[in-house]
Write a structure and sequence with these properties.
The chain has 3 helices and 4 strands; from the N terminus they run αααββββ. It is α+β, with helices and mostly antiparallel strands and 101 residues long. The chain has one domain.
């Protein structure tokens, strides 16, 4: 079995970022973990750009016909709610009851 070859990736950092990272003993590991965490938390639609293409907007509008965005009463985070499955989120038990209003 062939061993995966690692690649070196470089990026520019301004002086304030370099200064903030001075106390980190293993910067490479810290940056790898930060990137992986960020990728895991990226919006699946826009992939972190913050913008939807015209086609994505059409799909989103169709999706919203049977779904809504609701704020959780307990943690105040916004989440999707399916109108066909009240009280359930993606087949799992809901996190908290949706807020009313």
């Amino acid at each position: 079995m062939k061993k995966k070859r690692e690649e070196i990736v470089t990026f520019k950092a301004d002086a304030s970022l370099v200064e903030a990272m001075k106390g980190i003993s293993n910067r490479s590991e810290f940056i790898r973990n930060a990137i992986l965490l960020s990728l895991d938390s990226t919006c699946p639609l826009c992939r972190g750009s913050g913008l939807l293409t015209p086609d994505q907007k059409t799909h989103w509008k169709n999706f919203l016909l049977d779904h809504s965005i609701t704020e959780c009463r307990k943690c105040h985070e916004r989440h999707l709610v399916c109108s066909h499955r009240p009280g359930k989120v993606a087949g799992k038990v809901k996190h908290h009851p949706p807020s009313r209003g």
